[in-house]
């Protein structure tokens, strides 16, 4: 396989707020902004672009694989900020994490209402 993931545009109610949120949670690097995009870069050169679309948008699901130490820091940030979070995607286990796939995981909403999943072990 030669295909690799390069970038995605994340619809945002406030691109600057979203970039700040993701930068802190994912410990992402700033990338140059252009046009309507506020940009961050994560591992493997993947670019996250935040922009306000001219139409309403449905919430999306974004999952990020973190190492154990990063997960600990992210979870401390989530709980320290009093952010709602769940151990499951159906949001039936509030204030908890899961231990699926021999790792840990947590679900939360970003400032624009997208579903985030932070995991320490890949599914495959």
Number-wise, the strands total 7
Helices and strands: which structural class? alpha/beta
Q: Beta-strand level of the residues, as a percent range?
A: 25-35%
Shape assignment:
globular
Low-pLDDT stretches are none
SSE string, helix = H, strand = E?
Answer: EHEEEEHEE
Structure commentary:
This protein is an alpha/beta fold and 124 residues long. The protein is built from 2 helices and 7 strands.
Helix-strand layout with pairing:
Blueprint: E1 7-11, H1 15-26, E2 29-34, E3 37-41, E4 47-51, E5 61-65, H2 68-80, E6 105-109, E7 115-119
Features:
globular, 3-stranded mixed β-sheet, about 120 residues, 7 strands
Gist of the model:
The protein is α/β, with parallel strands linked by helices and 124 residues long. The chain is built from two helices and seven strands; from the N terminus they run E-H-E-E-E-E-H-E-E. The model has no long low-confidence stretch (mean pLDDT 97).
């Amino acid at each position: 396989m030669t295909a690799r993931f390069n970038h995605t545009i994340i619809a945002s109610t406030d691109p600057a707020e979203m970039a700040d949120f993701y930068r802190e949670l994912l410990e992402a690097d700033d990338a140059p902004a252009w046009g309507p995009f506020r940009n961050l870069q994560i591992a493997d050169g993947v670019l996250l672009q935040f922009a306000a679309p001219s139409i309403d948008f449905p919430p999306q699901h974004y999952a990020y694989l973190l190492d154990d130490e990063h997960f600990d820091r992210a979870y401390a940030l989530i709980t320290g900020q009093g952010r709602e979070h769940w151990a499951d995607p159906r949001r039936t286990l509030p204030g908890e994490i899961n231990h699926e796939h021999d790792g840990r995981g947590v679900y939360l909403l970003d400032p624009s209402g997208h579903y985030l999943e932070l995991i320490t072990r890949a599914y495959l």
